Amino acid sequence: MTRIRRGYIARRRRTKMRLFASSFRGAHSRLTRTITQQKIRALVSAHRDRDRQKRTFRRLWITRINAVIRERGVFYSYSKLIHDLYKSRVLLNRKILAQIAILNKKSIYMISNEIIK
Fold first, then answer.
1. How far apart are CA 104 and CA 92, in angstroms?
2. Half-sphere exposure (CA, 13 Å, Cβ side) for 89?
3. Alpha carbon distances (Å) from 108 to 19, 58, 86, 100
4. pLDDT tens by residue, 46-101
5. Domain residue limits, the chain
6. What does the alpha-carbon distance between residue 82 and residue 87 come to, in Å, rounded to a whole number?
7. What are the start-end ranges of the H helices in the chain?
8. Are 39 and 17 in contact (CB under 8 A)?
9. DSSP state of 24
10. What's this model's pTM, rounded to 2 decimal places?
11. CB 14 within 8 A of CB 32
12. Which terminus of the chain, N or C, has less C-beta within 10 A?
């Protein structure tokens, strides 16, 4: 009896996985089983760290805004600024406020003075 050649579907799936793991080191890019394990691990880490990245950037923006606001006055802080922004219905998010704080401190001071009035 002659040998039966296998189909191409499984080979195509494995080559796709190999392309995904081609930048991994050692057996993680060569052996099929470890490639599948590392692929799962990489995708889990990517999913988790997308949320973590959002958190860390928000913390960074808050820190920058707070640092600039506290330079102005001892009794004025980030939380009071955000509270006053909400009361006066000014639609500026933390990312934009942090950019303004870095690039142009005077405009942050102007915004805070207008809100306080």
1. 15
2. 0
3. 49, 18, 15, 7
4. 999 999 999 999 999 999 999 999 887 767 888 989 999 999 998 889 999 999 99
5. 8-116
6. 9
7. 9-20, 32-72, 78-87, 94-103, 105-116
8. yes
9. S
10. 0.75
11. yes
12. N
Tokens of 103: 């690039």
Q: At what angle do helices 32-72 and 105-116 cross, to 10 degrees?
A: 60
Residue in this structure with the two tokens 């955000």, named with its chain if needed: 82
d(CA 52, CA 76): 29
CA distance 52 to 74: 32
Q: Provide the sign of the torsion angle of the four alpha carbons 11, 17, 22, 26, taken in this order.
A: negative
Q: 30 is written with which tokens?
A: 């060569």
